[in-house]
Amino acid sequence: MAEPKKQNSPFHWLGLLKWSIEQHSSDLPPSEWKPMKEEDKAWLREVMDTMVRDDAQEMKLILKTVGDLFLVASKDDRADSKDPTQCEVEEGLESDKDERGQELLEELEDIVCQIDAAVNFVKLKGLECLSELLRSSQIPPLTRGAAAGVMATLSQNNPPVQEAMLQAGYMVLFSDLLQEEGLEESVKLRAFGALSSLVRSHAEAESAFSATEGPELLKILLRGASVRFKRKVLFFTKALLGTGAEPAPPARVEAFWEVVGALAGLLVTEDDLELRENALQLLVNLGQQGLKERLYAAYGAALDEARGVFAANPPPEPENAQRQEQLWKALDDLS
């Protein structure tokens, strides 16, 4: 089976330059310089071919290799350069394939972090292959998580890819993954990253997420989630609910109001510094949008308790305590 080529180090180019310089003898006048021998030209072409990556061919090869590891039913179709991704999940997968699948998908992620390569990947119908890996609980966790990581990288700040994913229904796929029973949190974290990249900074996706089951999903995720997961949910919610300078649409704030309450509660229940600061910043952002009175009407008891917790047990580092104090003061100073 053909394997994707490894990315070559820039130092290889320096070695090639050094070799080229060594082939030129400064002792000879230009009149005595000779053309390269054919075998030297062939060798140089071979070196150049191995050092210049064709991203499209590399992506196709990775998809085919991953497909041969985990997917069946249409291997002949995957071999077709026009569409290498028609596939179904193989049954009875061997767990020792997991690390290899992860390695291949991480190589793919290195390629699609370039915006143009990500768009080309969608044109190659690569999303279909990744979605099959994500949908099946038979796919081992390292590979499944890596597939979600590729999805996140593909769509991050890339409107054409976000649009393609939105129209193909991947928001539902990621939401289903996040609620799958027994799925490792490491995979769910990467699935949440894919959902966040798909939704953020894409007006239609943000509206669709807010108007459907998105807010309820975030409330579910916050129940019993790890601190790391709560940080990600909080960051995502902050991005959706805007700032004083760029306020969120009123309908979106309304849709996420109970999520805001759950996040405000973290000021009481969590002692993680990053969580507390970002929860406070979220409240300040909403207060700057003219919602301070409503915040205190709905969640005043929790905020008063949180203020008492901060007064009794401020962060031990002076700079951290000062930042939180400044955020509380910013909230108080809002009209």
From TrEMBL:
<dbReference type="GO" id="GO:0000774">
    <property type="term" value="F:adenyl-nucleotide exchange factor activity"/>
</dbReference>
<dbReference type="InterPro" id="IPR050693">
    <property type="entry name" value="Hsp70_NEF-Inhibitors"/>
</dbReference>
<dbReference type="GO" id="GO:0005783">
    <property type="term" value="C:endoplasmic reticulum"/>
</dbReference>
<protein>
    <recommendedName>
        <fullName>Nucleotide exchange factor Fes1 domain-containing protein</fullName>
    </recommendedName>
</protein>
<feature type="region of interest" description="Disordered">
    <location>
        <begin position="78"/>
        <end position="100"/>
    </location>
</feature>
<dbReference type="InterPro" id="IPR016024">
    <property type="entry name" value="ARM-type_fold"/>
</dbReference>
<dbReference type="InterPro" id="IPR011989">
    <property type="entry name" value="ARM-like"/>
</dbReference>
